[in-house]
Amino acid sequence: MSDWGWPGLIAHRCGGALAPENTLAGLGIAARLGCVAVEFDAMLSADGVPLLIHDETLDRTAGVPGCVAAMPAAALLATDVGGVFHPAFRGETIPRLIDALARCRALGLAANLEIKPATGVEIETGRVVGELLASMAPTQRPVVLLSSFSADALRIAAGCVPDISRAFLVEAFDDTAIDTALALGCQSLNLSRQGLSAAHVAAVKKAGLRCLVYTVNQPDEARRLAAWGVDGVFSDRPDLLLPVSACQNPA
Q1: How sure is the predictor about 249, in pLDDT bands with cuts at 50, 70 and 90?
Q2: Residue 43 maps to which CATH number?
Q3: 54 catalytic, yes or no?
Q4: How far apart are CA 92 and CA 99, in angstroms?
Q5: Which domain holds residue 42?
Q6: Which of 7, 8, 12, 247 is catalytic?
Q7: Is residue 4 domain-resident?
Q8: CB of 157 within 8 A of CB of 129?
């Protein structure tokens, strides 16, 4: 557990591998497990509504063709993403970002909101997400950590809500990632577990940044990363990592 007020375990894509990803059902499962933080992805529909989805197409999560950025929100909100995961979740649809934030608030979950823009709409996605957060009173929204692989999206969103903590996401460590995170005023640099070393973590911490790592599903690996100084991990198997996590409610 880090000392910066953010939990050491974050359920990946709402409920990890235990629920259809990026759904309200996943949030409920994460809360019932005892998680206090989740991560999810926000992308815009064709008419500019921020929704929870990871891919630019519906093929993987819904089993139907469709380009998210070319579809209106009404069609996306009616898209079943539960049935492909398991028949028990049939009828679980893509939610709006604002509804996911409200559900997190109601469940007492902190939210790592990853801005996941479709190609070519990085700035617009950052603006819409930032303006949505800015329109919510602090008492209405959960504790939020904004993150993105897109420096442009993160910069624009942060301009709307400078009070919200943020993290820069990268697939592999290098010095330029640290420089970008610092230039964006980030509190954390979020790194993939692939190719990560203790020296990389030490460099991040030396720069004054926190370090979160994705996607960690084995308790032994979580313990090793904690020993390196990693502040927290994203996991598809929060049920396995909760026993070794020192999760507490975020400040």
Answers
A1: very low
A2: 3.20.20.190
A3: yes
A4: 14
A5: 9-244
A6: 12
A7: no
A8: yes
